[in-house]
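User: Fold this; C-alpha cells only.

Assistant: Input:
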Amino acid sequence: MQLLDGLSVSKTIKLELKEQVEKRKSENKKIPHLAAVLVGNNGASQTYVNAKVKACNEVGFDSTLIHLTEDISEHDLLFEIEKLNLNPDIDGYIVQLPLPQHINEKKILLAIDPMKDVDGFHPENVGRMMLNMKTFLPATPMGIITLLERNNIETSGKHAVVLGRSHIVGLPMSILLQRNHPFGNCTVTLCHSKTKNIEEICKSADIIIAAVGIPEFLRGDMVKAGAVVVDVGITRVNDASKKSGFRLLGDVNFEEVSSKCSFITPVPGGVGPMTIVSLMQNTLASVEHKE
C-alpha cells in the first residue's frame, strides 16, 4: 500500500505556482487575486477559508477575505457578489458553502460571474465540463485527477466507482473519470443512497472515490485487493482524548481498507490540500485567459 499524499503533491504545485508568480512579477504582469466570501461563523468553513488565504500568501497571490454576518439578507449577499463581479482586480472568487438556510444557494451560484467562478459550480462551467470544453473544473474533482496524474496511476479502461452524487464532488468526478483524457477513460458506476448491492459494486472497482459524508462508510470487505481508494470525506467526531476535543474521520475505514488497496489517501492530508491548490490553479488560469 502506498499513500496518495495530497499534502506533498500540493506543496510541489505551490512551488510551481510561486515560480510562475515571480516570473509574472519580473515581467510586470498582473498578480493573481483570489477572494473568498464567508457567511457566518461555521468552524469548519472558517478553517478551510483561512487555509486558502494562507496558501495564497505562500505563493505570492493577492487574497481578500470578505466575512459577512450569519444574518445577512440574500439581497445584501447578492450585492456583495455583484461588487466582486465588477471589480477588475479580482480574478476569481469563491462563496464558501454551506450558506445559512434563509439564503438560496442556487440563486447565489447563478449570480457569480462564470469567468470568475474558480470553484467551477456555475451552470455554464458545468455545461462546458460536460462537453469536454476548456473551463474551470470543480476544485475537489480537479484535485483528485491531479493527484492520480502526479502518482502515475493508470485509469484508462479501469472500473471506477464513485460513492455520492453531490454537484460538488460525486457528479463532476464521475464525468471527469469517464472523459476521453489520459487520466480518464474509465467505465464509471455512480452510487448513491438508493443504489442496491453497493457492496458488490464496490468489490468490482479498480478505483473507488468515496464522497458520501458518512464516517468510515467504506470497509475492508467492500474493497478488492489492489484497488485505488480516494477518501473525500472529512467529519469531526467528538474525542475527549484529543486536545481539540475531536478527531477527523474520512468516509473510508483506513485501518481495514489500507491493508488491501494499492493506493489510498489519508485523512487529513489527502484530498483537502489538493482542493486548495486547484482553486489557485483556476485563479491563475483566469488571469491568463483575460490576457
